[in-house]
Amino acid sequence: MSEAASPNDALIVVDVQNDFCPGGALPVPAGDEVVPELNAWIAWARAGGALVVASRDWHPAHHCSFEPFGGRWPPHCIAGTPGAAFHPRLEIPDEAVIVSKATQPDRDAYSAFDGTGLETRLRERGVKRVLVGGLALDYCVKATALDAARAGFETVLLRSATRPVEVHPGDGERAVEELRAAGVRILDGRP
Ligand code: VGL
Ligand code: ZN
Predict the structure, then answer these.
(1) Do the beta carbons of residue 140 and residue 77 sit within 8 Å?
(2) Which end of the chain is less congested by CB atoms within 10 angstroms, N or C?
(3) Is ligand 1 within 6 A of the CB of residue 15?
(4) pLDDT for position 3
(5) What is residue 35's DSSP assignment?
(6) Could you write out the DSSP letters of every residue in 114-173?
(7) CB–CB of 56/39 below 8 Å?
(8) Residues in the chain with pLDDT < 70?
(9) Cis amide prior to 4 (ω within 30 degrees)
(10) Atom 4 of ligand 1, nearest CA residue
(11) b/e per residue, 53-75, with b = 16+ CB within 10 A?
(12) How many other C-beta atoms lie within 10 A of the C-beta of residue 142?
């Protein structure tokens, strides 16, 4: 992006947590490769006075999305555990807004907007445009960007700053096409 960031922009860094990176409980292939990309976007956001939001999957130990409790995923991102911590090289500013999601045992939530009050917080700050990257492209990044577009924010997918988990091959590209069809701008590369 050749444009500078502005206070009307928000960068949403979705679920860049140890459990979604190689070695974690639910690893996204090459998920850690988003870290330097997102650090470049965080620097861009800070330089222009944009808001930085970091979401985290923050499950109770008996979450309904976990296989032992009838869900589809191995247990992951249990609140307060090392697996739920942000990747150690992710440079989250002190002033960032941290959004914890899927915190109720009986309900999953992929989008950073789902049950978090994020839309209201963005509106209160006059945010018009949101840029979305992180993990995983075909789940929480997709859901977050779709919600942002539906809420009327100008929405940009940071394609180089996200990776898919691809339970089914091709899910990543399908997610990109779904986002494009919903009016989301797809942006490759760094700022
Ligand atoms: C996610 C699967 C389960 C994600 C969260 O952050 O994309 N995926 N929980
Ligand atoms: Zn989860």
Answers:
(1) no
(2) N
(3) yes
(4) 87
(5) H
(6) TTT-HHHHHHHTT--EEEEEEE-IIIIIHHHHHHHHHTT-EEEEEEEEEE---SSTTHHH
(7) no
(8) 2
(9) no
(10) 140
(11) bbbbbbbeeebebbeeeeeebeb
(12) 27
Cβ 78 under 6 angstroms from ligand 1: no
Residue 19 identity: D
**Other C-beta atoms lying within 10 Å of the C-beta of residue 107:** 12
Task: Compute the distance from residue 88 Cα to the ligand 2 centre, in Å.
Answer: 19
Report how far ligand 1's centroid is from the alpha carbon of 140 (Å).
5
Q: Which two tokens stand for residue 147?
A: 């919600």
Question: How far apart are alpha carbons 140 and 100 in whole angstroms?
Answer: 13
Ligand 1 centroid to Cα of residue 3, in Å, is: 31
Tokens matching residue 155: 């929405």
Ligand with the closest atom to the CA of 76: 2
* Residue 66 Cβ < 6 Å to ligand 1: no
Which of 35, 36, 1 lies closest to 15 in space, CA to CA?
A: 35
Strands 129-135 and 9-14: parallel
Give the closest residue (by CA) to ligand 1 atom 2. Answer: 139
Name the closest-CA residue to atom 6, ligand 1. Answer: 140
